[in-house]
Write a structure and sequence with these properties.
Layout (H helix, E strand, L loop, with lengths): L1 E2 L8 E4 L2 E11 L7 E8 L5 E7 L3 E4 L2 E12 L2 E6 L5 E5 H11 L5 E7 L2 E6 L3 E9 L12 E6 L4 E5 L7 E5 L4 E5 L1
Antiparallel strand pairs: 1-6, 2-3, 2-6, 3-4, 4-5, 7-8, 7-10, 8-9, 10-11, 12-13, 12-15, 13-14, 15-16
């Protein structure tokens, strides 16, 4: 068991059979009364944030989460297959664990980070930035000089994003997977 003084940002803990990572914490020592710790925790399965305040003397169960690098191979129906970069074993992950944001930017041979708790996958995250080829977009119109004008473009995995007018079919672009926005042409 962990004492509240042993908590730190990035630490994983188990509360009510759910695994959380500490996103933010603040030690508070008021003039009157005992000290406490205000925390912001992210549930690794649901990605939701919760605020919990722990009193001095509270004990918290640590959660030992393993992180593995996996490479996406293929999918059949709602099952997605990855190869573990350490053991070279094939890992099957259901669509609901991956989540909509991961599925939106998943492509063949893309490396992702997977968190395992007690042998079960609890979360999968993409790299912050990925490079995709534009397979379809309307040509930019010469003389269209509206500042920050955007047009839709289809990426090689079928996802549609907004890109500047100068980006053309066949260009490779860098995308921020957290926001889904165009960053730059590569």
């Amino acid at each position: 068991m962990l004492n509240i003084n042993e908590l730190s940002v990035g630490r994983t803990v188990k509360i009510n059979n759910d695994v959380f990572v500490v996103v933010n914490l603040e030690h508070v020592k008021p003039g009157k009364g005992s000290a406490f710790v205000r925390t912001k925790l992210r549930n690794l399965k649901t990605k939701s944030l919760i605020d919990i305040t722990f009193k001095d003397g509270d004990k918290i169960e640590p959660a030992f989460v393993e992180e593995h690098t996996l490479t996406y191979l293929y999918n059949t129906g709602d099952m997605y297959y990855f190869m573990d970069q350490e053991s070279f074993e094939e890992v099957m992950i259901p669509e609901e664990i991956l989540g909509e944001q991961v599925l939106r930017f998943l492509k063949e041979n893309l490396e992702v980070r997977a968190n395992f708790y007690e042998g079960q996958i609890v979360s999968v995250s993409l790299p912050n930035f990925v490079v995709y080829e534009i397979i379809e977009t309307a040509p930019g119109v010469k003389g269209d000089t509206v500042k920050n004008a955007l047009k839709p473009a289809t990426l090689e995995n079928g996802t549609v994003i907004q890109v500047p007018l100068f980006v053309e079919q066949g260009d490779k672009v860098k995308i921020d997977t957290r926001t889904g926005k165009y960053i730059e042409r590569v």
